[in-house]
Structure formats: C-alpha cells, structure tokens
Design brief:
By secondary structure, the chain is an alpha+beta fold. It has 4 helices and 8 strands. Strands 1, 2, 3, 4, 5, 6, 7 and 8 form an 8-stranded antiparallel β-sheet that branches. The relative contact order is 0.22.
Length: 187
C-alpha cells in the first residue's frame, strides 16, 4: 500500500540524494500520441523546497518531455532503490520547462555542475508524493557515471549543439512544439 507524504521531508531528500538515477514520464493530451519515459542521471536533480524539485535537462535525441509540458504540464518523477531496502518513490506534479533566457534559468543553473551544456531546466511543482514497496525491483550495483554524454557535447561544441537542437529538438515525435530556443533564423 502506498504511503502519501505531505511534503519532501528530510528522509525523502536523503532517499532521493542517495539514488544514482531517476525516471521522468509525461504524455500528450488526449488518446493518441506517444507516452514518454526517460531515465536521468549525472547529478541532475535538486530538491528546491518542500513541494518543488528541478532537474537539469541535457541535450538529447528527442524533446518529448518539453513538448508534453508545454501542452499540458503533467509529469511524474520516479526513483527506485536498486541498492539497500526496497522502495519506489513517485512525485506527480506540474512541470515547467525553463530554457536559457528564462528569468529563473541562470539562478537555477548555478545549482548544477557547469558542464555539459543544458538544454533546459525542468522545474516541477509537486502535487502528490507517494512511495511503494519496490519488492519487484532488482538489486543492482552502481559502477559509476558514463562519460559519453559530456564527451559527445564537448566534441560537438556550442555551435554543433545549437545546430543539433535546431535539427532534433524543435518538435516531439508527435509533431508538438518542443524547444523554443535556439530559434531557427529567418531565411
């Protein structure tokens, strides 16, 4: 049976901080469209308050979460204990994509490692916090962070990342508007 929490207290902060990865799920409105589920890692999550979290959104091959948040704001974050006692924690909420240029972006960006370059920061107003047993989650051993994303970003450079985002992150799989920056110059 799930236990509900009124806020992100010290024990939940500890649990979240101890996990090496979390998952983000979102979906478009209506009956059609692709539901999206993405794993996140690389020290990207921050608890901002008793009912607010944010994560650094790195450049990626798709921009589903950005598009879904622009359309309806619905998001859920989930952590699984792969080490230690079994537990699953979910935070349901309303997400907001803060792209560079947004008034809060620079302030929040300072909370994370300086590189690689971020595409956006996803801030979540948490509406429901619940845990469950996690008995079916396997025990896995953490070996370390992968270096491919930071290495890829370094090889691309700023201009290459900007072009990649123009080419791959302006729309979702379903054609919904996603990343607003960098805008494609008028021809």
């Amino acid at each position: 049976m799930a236990k509900l929490f009124p806020e992100i207290d010290a024990s939940l902060r500890e649990f979240v901080a101890a996990q090496h990865m979390f998952f983000v799920a979102s979906a478009p409105s209506g009956e059609s469209g692709h539901v999206n589920l993405s794993p996140k890692g690389l020290d990207t999550l921050r608890v901002l308050g008793p009912r607010e979290v944010a994560y650094l959104d790195y450049v990626g091959s798709g921009a589903e979460t950005l598009a879904h948040l622009r359309e309806n704001g619905r998001i859920v974050l989930m952590w699984c204990a792969f080490e230690g006692p079994p537990r699953i924690l979910r935070m349901h909420g309303r997400g907001h994509a803060l792209e560079p240029g947004h008034a809060d972006f620079a302030r929040l960006r300072a909370l994370y490692p300086a590189s690689p370059r971020a595409r956006s920061i996803i801030r979540v107003d948490v509406l429901r916090i619940a845990d469950s047993c996690g008995y079916g989650v396997p025990l896995l051993r953490y070996e370390g962070e992968r270096t491919q994303l930071p290495d890829w970003c370094a090889r691309k450079g700023d201009d290459g990342l900007t072009q990649y985002q123009r080419d791959n992150n302006a729309r979702s799989l379903d054609g919904l508007p996603a990343l607003r920056w960098p805008s494609v110059p008028e021809a």
